[in-house]
Amino acid sequence: MSYARIIGSGSCLPPRAVSNDELAADLAKRDVETSDEWIVERTGIRQRHIAEAGTTSSKLATEAARIALEDAGLAPQEVDLIIVATSTPDYIFPSTACLVQANLGIKGCPAFDVQAVCSGFVYALTTANAFIRSGQARNALVIGAEVFSTILDWNDRRTCVLFGDGAGAVVLKASEQPGIIGAQLNADGSHMGILYAAGNVASGQVVGDPFLRMDGQAVFKLAVNSLSQSAHQVCEQAGISLDEIDWMVPHQANVRILNFLSRKLGIAPEKVIITLDKHANTSAASVPLALDAARRDGRIKEGDLVLMQGVGGGFTWGSVLARM
Ligand code: ACO
């Protein structure tokens, strides 16, 4: 049975980077008070990229995918599976994955979205891994793409300072050499109330509250505990010890969550890839954006063992362990 190996990656961030100071000045015009000092101290975020009106998840996803394919040395026509993780799709349907497929000029292969909020990328990667392991695909495009700026309540300082827009993509290829060696996913829908965007469309009208709402402290506690449990489980499944991990690429929600987590797992902070300062929380895009940044700056190299982790609304969480 073939393994699935990551052979390429790519990123796309909207060109407009907004610093905490710029954001604070914008929010002050609405009488919403915040500061660079508060945001940096509580979250580690220094800036985020914000999409212009009309920039959609499919546009960012397509660009990230093109770069990942180029990195992998693969032509779009060789792709036989496309999975996009997003909670901010362009439309209710067709899926963002189908839009990306059309943008890339590919026809025929399966293309679908996965919705697991900030865990979306590890859910999508685990799904693509299963397709490759079972022989149903050989070259998969797995993308996390979000325009969370469109679902933020810019009058709610507890949430609007935390997020950014962007997309990250990887190319997975069937290989005799490992590859993804462990993957485990979880969900507990009873925690819906701590993180949600509970709006929808009915009879042509938006019903409910379209914006993201969050109980930050409840999310914080659950995130640390669930990610730590998941890391132990995926390592046990793969028969490796936490000491063997070269790099951790966790979902970028809050630097304090990442510090707690690395301490709890006994993983040195230097092994944790952090892009939160530049990208803020890009939900499903955060793990592939961080992975791509670390591959491109030469930290993550071929042969390294990488633990990727996601956690988010649902509540959902999970881990993928991959030999690069
Ligand atoms: N600027 C200034 N003050 C603020 C801001 C802000 N942007 N936001 C909140 N405050 C104020 C609050 O109003 C409160 O003031 P009060 O005591 O006068 O009411 C004070 O700061 C403390 O607020 P808390 O919400 O208790 O702040 P906390 O230390 O918990 O930090 C945070 C909030 C950063 C959201 C934290 O709870 C957290 O990181 N939680 C994790 C959740 C997370 O990262 N979510 C991302 C999405 S989920 C995911 O990706 C997994």
What does this protein look like?
33% of the residues lie in helices and 26% in strands. It is an alpha+beta fold and 324 residues long. The protein folds into 2 domains: 3-175, Peroxisomal Thiolase, Chain A, domain 1, CATH 3.40.47.10; 180-323, 3-Layer(aba) Sandwich (Peroxisomal Thiolase, Chain A, domain 1), CATH 3.40.47.10. The strands form 5 sheets. It has a 5-stranded mixed sheet, sandwiched between helices. Helix 3 crosses helix 4 and helix 7 runs parallel beside helix 8 (255-265). The protein is globular and about 60 Å long. It starts with a strand and ends with a strand. The site of acetyl coenzyme *A has 23 residues, from helix 2, helix 6, helix 7 and strand 14. Its EC number is 2.3.1.180. Residues 235-323 form the Beta-ketoacyl-[acyl-carrier-protein] synthase III C-terminal domain. Keywords: Acyltransferase, Cytoplasm, Fatty acid biosynthesis, Fatty acid metabolism, Lipid biosynthesis, Lipid metabolism, Multifunctional enzyme, Transferase.
Distance between the termini: 18 Å
What is the name of the CATH superfamily of the largest domain? Answer: Thiolase/Chalcone synthase
**What would you call the structural class?**
alpha+beta
Number of strands: 15
Proportion of strand residues = 25-35%
Count the domains.
2
Give a short account of the largest sheet: 5 strands, mixed
For the record, what CATH class of the largest domain applies? Alpha Beta
Total number of helical segments?
A: 10
Bound ligand species: acetyl coenzyme *A
What CATH architecture of the largest domain would you give? 3-Layer(aba) Sandwich
H/E element order:
EEHHEHEHEHEHEEEEEEHEHHHEE
Report the average pLDDT across residues.
Answer: 97
Q: pLDDT below 50 for ≥5 consecutive residues: which ranges?
A: none
Trace the largest sheet across and list its strands: 1-7-6-4-5
Task: Quote the CATH topology of the largest domain.
Answer: Peroxisomal Thiolase, Chain A, domain 1
Family: Belongs to the thiolase-like superfamily. FabH family.
Active site: 118, 251, 281
Organism: Pusillimonas noertemannii
Main location: cytoplasm
